[in-house]
Amino acid sequence: MSKRVLILTDGKAGHENQSKAFARALDCDFDLVEVHFKGAVCKAFSYLFDNLGLGCLGLLAAKDTTMSALCARTGYAAVLGTGSGTFYAAKTLARRLGVKCGVVLYPRGYRISTFDCILAPAFDRAPAAPNVIEIPANLVANDAAFYAKGTEAFRARHPDSGRPALGVIVGGPNKCSTMTAGWMRTELTQIFAAHPDLEKWVTTSRRTPADVEAVVDSFPFDYKLLYSKDRFNPIPAFVSLARVLYVTAESTGMLSEACTFGTADVRVLDNLNPGPNKFRRFAEFCAALGAKKIDLSAPFAAARARLGL
C-alpha cells in the first residue's frame, strides 16, 4: 500500500504541479489542500516567527477546511509544498502532525535547517546544507500516459507525414524578458533557413502578445496552434515527437519539460533581458544539454532518504 502525503498548495498551477511531481517521485499518493496567508502582514510575520522558532497556524487560512481540521488529520507520511506561500505552512503543519516536511524551491528568509528536505533548482544557487538537494531543473508532473494521450490527440488533428519534425514553443514577456514582433520574425526566419527539410510545428501561449502571434501566423508552418484561436495543447506531442525543439528562454517550466522528457534536441530562443540572473543561468544550462535529457533519479533517491520514505 502506497504511503500518503499532504500537499499544501498556494493555488498556482506551476507550484502545485511541482509538488505533485515530488509526491509521485516519492511513490506516494497525496491529498491536496490550498492554503494562504491571511494577508501580506501575516506573511511578513511568518519570517519573523520562523526565525524565532515559532509555528503559528493563526497566520494561515485553508480553502474548504480549517487549519484546526488539518491538524486533526492522520495517516500522512510527510507534508510537501512549493513556493513562498507554502513554506511556512508546510513546516508548521508538519510539526503539528509529527511528520517530516519537504519543499520545492529554495525557501529564502526562513530557517533552512528546520526543513527536513529542500529540492532546490541549481539556478537558485542555494548554499550547501545536508537537507538541501540540488536539482538541475523545475519538476514536471507529467508521466508517460500523459504524453501518449497528448500525442494521440495531436495525431488526430495532424496525421504523421513521415517527415521528421521541428517544434517551436512561444511563450511571452515577463519580468525577466521581452518579446517583440521584430524579434520573433528574425528568429523564425533563421529557424526556417536552418531546417529546410524538417516539418515545422508551432504553438503560442496565453502570454504571447497579439503582434507576435500575428508574425507567427504569417509563416508557413505545417502545423500551427494560435492560443488566441484554439486552446488545444499540442506540447505533449511536440515534446514526444519533435527531432528539434525551440523554446523561448523565459519559459522555465517548458524548458524543464523539454529537457526532461522526449528525445528532442532542445534549442533556446533567447528573449531574456540583459544581465546575469537565474533565468539566464537556466537557459544556458538547457542550451548546453542539446538532446541529452535530465536524470532526476539520484536527487529523488536522496529526498526519499531525507523524508524516511
Order of helices and strands: EHEHEHEHEEEHEHEHEHEHEHH
Give the class from helix and strand content and strand pairing. Answer: alpha/beta
Number of strands: 12
**How far is the N terminus from the C terminus?**
13 Å
Q: Helix tally?
A: 11
Q: What is the CATH superfamily of the largest domain?
A: Glycogen Phosphorylase B
How are the strands of the biggest sheet laid out side by side? 3-2-1-4-5-6-7
Query: Over all CA atoms, what is the radius of gyration?
Result: 21 Å
Shape: elongated
Question: For the residues shown, what is the average pLDDT?
Answer: 94
User: How is the main sheet built?
Assistant: 7 strands, mixed
Q: And the CATH topology of the largest domain?
A: Rossmann fold
Helix content: 25-40%
Low-pLDDT runs of 5+ residues are none
Strand content: 15-25%
Description:
- The protein is an alpha/beta fold and 309 residues long.
- The protein has two domains: 4-136 and 296-307, Rossmann fold (3-Layer(aba) Sandwich); 144-289, Glycogen Phosphorylase B (Rossmann fold).
- It has eleven helices and twelve strands.
- The strands form two sheets. It has a seven-stranded mixed sheet with strand order 3-2-1-4-5-6-7, sandwiched between helices.
- Strand 1, helix 1 and strand 2 form a beta-alpha-beta unit.
- Helix 5 crosses helix 8 (235-241), helix 6 packs parallel to helix 7 and helix 9 packs parallel to helix 10 (278-289).
- The longest helix has 14 residues, at 144-157.
- The mean pLDDT is 94.
